[in-house]
Design brief:
Order of helices and strands: HHHH
Distance between the termini: 76 Å
Structural class: mainly alpha
Strand content: under 5%
Length: 164
């Protein structure tokens, strides 16, 4: 049994309209019957391995918060694409900042500080530091230490201005 495979995409990989499609549009539908609904565009998945000609992807940068350590990565427009140690620490860090009432994005009003909930996120990061001690790469250790130091300083500052 032979199977014929026909590429029905309307656009080439460079984004240009296929010549076959423009000729078929002039003649009506390809089957000569009723026109059919257009096929949804086919999205090609990016390859997991970047080619040698691809420019290196820039590291993600954190949202504009006065106290975000440089080693914390992320993007204010969208969540990290993959879950790894850095994105997990970043999630906990940003959650703690939000609970401290510190704005994590420009133009977004912070909600009132909730010191108990902020302390929870700091405690989770402390637990993570304790349980992973000796098993992290140097960059991961530095990331965790900076996040904890910064959150502790922010927590002290907020707790002095907003006593419970």
């Amino acid at each position: 049994m032979k199977v014929k495979v026909t590429d029905r995409r309307k656009f080439r990989s460079d984004g240009q309209l296929r010549e076959e499609d423009s000729a078929a549009q002039d003649q009506g539908s390809p089957t000569g019957g009723e026109p059919t609904a257009p096929e949804p565009p086919v999205r090609s998945e990016p390859s997991a391995q970047p080619s040698a000609t691809d420019p290196p992807a820039p590291p993600p940068s954190p949202p504009a918060a006065n106290s975000t350590p440089k080693s914390l990565g992320g993007s204010e427009a969208s969540p990290p694409a993959k879950v790894d140690f850095q994105s997990f620490v970043y999630f906990l860090y940003m959650s703690a900042l939000q609970e401290l009432g510190i704005p994590t994005q420009e133009g977004v009003d912070p909600h009132p500080a909730d010191l108990e909930r902020a302390r929870f996120f700091v405690d989770v990061l402390e637990l993570l530091e304790e349980k992973t001690r000796g098993n992290l790469e140097p960059g991961e250790t530095k990331l965790l230490e900076e996040a904890l130091y910064n959150l502790r300083m922010q927590y002290l500052g907020v707790s002095k201005t907003n006593p419970a």
